[in-house]
From TrEMBL, chain A:
Keywords: Ribonucleoprotein, Ribosomal protein. Belongs to the bacterial ribosomal protein bL17 family. This is Large ribosomal subunit protein bL17m. It comes from the Eukaryota. The lineage of its organism: Eukaryota, Metazoa, Ecdysozoa, Arthropoda, Hexapoda. Residues 185-207 are annotated as: Disordered. Residues 198-207 have a biased composition (Basic and acidic residues). The keyword Lyase does not apply. It holds the Pfam family Ribosomal_L17.
TrEMBL record, chain B:
Its main location: mitochondrion. It comes from Chilo suppressalis. Belongs to the universal ribosomal protein uL14 family. It is found in: Mitochondrion. SUPFAM superfamilies: Ribosomal protein L14. Keywords: Mitochondrion, Ribonucleoprotein, Ribosomal protein, Transit peptide. This is Large ribosomal subunit protein uL14m. It comes from the Eukaryota. Pfam families: Ribosomal_L14.
Automatic annotation (TrEMBL), chain C:
InterPro entries: Ribosomal_bL19, Ribosomal_bL19_sf, Translation_prot_SH3-like_sf. The keyword Iron does not apply. Pfam families: Ribosomal_L19. Belongs to the bacterial ribosomal protein bL19 family. PANTHER family: LARGE RIBOSOMAL SUBUNIT PROTEIN BL19M, RIBOSOMAL PROTEIN L19. It comes from the Eukaryota. Keywords: Ribonucleoprotein, Ribosomal protein. Signal peptide: none annotated. This is Large ribosomal subunit protein bL19m.
Amino acid sequence: MNQADVSKLVSKLRIRVPAEPRKLRNIKGPEGRIDKLRKTVTGLIKYERIELNSNRGQEARQYAERLISEAIRHGDCHKPTMDIADYWLLEKELIHKLFKVLVPRFQDSNTCYTRLLNAPRIIHSRNPDKVILELKGNPYPVLGSNKMNNRFLIQNVLLDAAKYDYRQAKYAEFAKKIVNKEEKIDTTETEAPSIEKQQSDDKLTQS
Amino acid sequence: MFKAIVNKLNPLQLSCSFHTTACLNEVRLLTRLRVVDNSEIGKRAMSEGKPPRVICVYNKQRVGYIGDRVLVAIKGQKKKGILVGLKQTQKVKVPKFDSNNVVLIDDNGTPLGNRIHVPIPTILRTILKERTHAKGADYTKLLAIATKFV
Amino acid sequence: MSLAIRRTTELIGAAKWFLRRDSRVLSTLPEKVEEPPAELTSKRYRRRFFQNEAILETRHAYPEFLPDPNPNWRNSLREKLERADMLERRSQIDIPEFYVGSVLAVTISDPHAQSKTNRFVGICIERKGCGLRAEFTLRNVVDHQGLEVRYDLYDPTIQSIQVLRLEKRLDDKLFYLRDALPEYSTFSFDMDPEILPEGTPIPVNPVQVKLKPRPWLERWERQELKGVSNIEEHLKEKDRVRRELRKTPWEKYDLMKQYRKTIPIEDQSKIWAEVHNQLQQLQMARKKSARKRTFTTPKTQLG
């Protein structure tokens, strides 16, 4: 049972944090791991959407979230936070982006600041799993909007076409039945109303 | 971490061959002890800088705990002693000492000296009473020569 | 009978209805709730923020109320029950505020001692554990023999804990006192309690200890200790090289490592909101009783 460290206060992350950090394989040990993550976090802040190997993406996400939450909590007049930003962002113009762009963007959000999506995986490939890590509110087109009610989703297009065909078939059947009945009941009557009905049916289907 | 440092020291060798566990400070065979009574032999051994060494611990584990009887080699002689203070991490409320202390006794449990000049844990009172049997050795005499209990 | 009951219920119902309606008429709330001006909300927010900060400051004095930071060992129900038990225990005996570096006197009931009580005085060199398992270690040198006793903070056999000198040291753990000269950890058993004037911040004792020559129990030179003065005297060139190799300057910036060691503010403020009031009351009660108490020098007890 360890005692919690009370010397520093941190705000809670809105993502799930695993109990143990992942080890990223590196010849330089923990130092190399942090260097790797620094590059990734810098890339994320710069490009706002990057594709990574799964392990590295998940680990870098935590660090990016922490960096942004520290920046939001302390602002740019806090010396230790500036030091941290200076360490984590290898390109120094990104420090301005962090405090001037990202902090106002995420200040009032009550969810996490990044999004992690699984990239499509090539079947039977031996490549490691890929993920896409992005900052929320980025200017790129939305990823992974495979909502089930999207009209242009291939399944929905096919289903719509199938429904249309089925309806057409049913209407044709009805029309045939009615024509047959009328012929049986009253052969003397003209066929004009039945034709009219058929036309109206067609209109309905078209609409 | 250690691997990384070893790599820094010696980039060709990729394994770390020494163990890095913290020591347990157990009283085992050949542990040096500190005699804390004023027996003649003990005083001389300590002043000459040749503290006694454990050559047997009289229990099943062969690791000495507080109140255990040990056989020590002191100044070329074999003497029995009782452990009255240990460096090892102790249970809650039992004091942990900065040195492994021993009080020399003879076979009947009578201390060789007549005064102990360091504090003695109070739990020893109960332990030694339990160890003493009516016909065997009487270890409680040791308690009588103690000056201070903690 | 039943008719009467029904009538009364009807009456009550009517009265309720009337009241509700009346109140609605009286209150005359507009349909749209006007948003308070931005300044006001920010002020209110700030006040709440400062209150929260004040509550969070209790974490230094009572760190054992915070749970273990490792999520594998968390159990919210157990933690809650433990906190209740801790407050219960604190209402039974006076567990004062103390820090690593303070000098304490602890009296326990000891079945092994002749007087059935045992008093030990020493400097607190470590506080660890959380919840009911919180521990602290006292160190003293008695008759030129270094001694350390570990106590459970919420042990039911503890009769009293008295703070003789309330102060902090430069480091969080004072294990280097084991290798320091004995005068730095020698405290007499009949030491008088030093009373700080009310409202003063906890003083930090800037004393720097001198270490004995090597061998040491730990490699103190690698631990960046502030409270040791003569560490460089005992080092060889080899040790300095090794120290440079072992340095981990990146750990200062390892944000997730820090995060995994602490409890975030949101969780902390929930816990402190739960216990803060009762702790405050206990503190007030202690102050009152301290004013009433007549001063008596504690007697030394032999075993």
